């Protein structure tokens, strides 16, 4: 006997036996000796599995016994269900150049869902994205690989999606450097630009002398000193 039932429906197996003396009929699950709470055995040999879940899939054994012997027959239950996904949202942090495996996309459902990945901002890196049993590995990662990635599972009963985030860090690089030497006239204002790659923050400090908060300010990486004085000379 084989029965296929949708999730949350009831599955019913009927088992009957003949003999003299009349045999008694019992049901059991193939992986255990008894029946779980969701299973109901009726005296007429009927087994009812109520509101089936994927965990109810498997083999069930009908046994007929009398004083003269016993006989067994097995029945198979297959539960169909739409995909469900478990996926850690991240973020996953990694250094540029590393091979990065994103959190595994744990998928349940029957028929077995097809699993796909996509990058929500841009495209999956060509020739560097490797797929294996629900996992996505980004090889030789670049800063541009940072962003949200979506895992989707589909079967004929539906689909499900979850998102996880990847952050790839690279060494800071200056995109604008201030000159090594600046000559200004006393009393003038000084502005020195300094910017770096987007993932890095820029800060300034004075190597010798005090930092005067009223005249020395940093805005978006740019150092501004108002009304230059002789005491501002130095690094």
Structure report:
Residues 1-80, 83-164, 172-235 form the Ig-like domain. The protein is mostly beta strands. Helix content is 0%, strand content 47%. The protein contains no helices and 20 strands. It has strands spanning 2-6, 11-14, 24-29, 39-41, 46-49, 58-66, 69-86, 92-95, 100-101, 106-110, 114-119, 129-132, 135-138, 147-155, 158-169, 174-176, 190-192, 195-196, 216-219, 222-225. The strands form six sheets. Strands 1, 3, 6, 7 and 10 form a five-stranded mixed sheet that branches. Strands 8-15-14-11 form a four-stranded mixed sheet, with no helix packed on it. β12 and β13 (135-138) form a beta hairpin. The mean pLDDT is 83.
Secondary structure: elements and pairs:
Elements lengths: L1 E5 L4 E4 L9 E6 L9 E3 L4 E4 L8 E9 L2 E18 L5 E4 L4 E2 L4 E5 L3 E6 L9 E4 L2 E4 L8 E9 L2 E12 L4 E3 L13 E3 L2 E2 L19 E4 L2 E4 L10
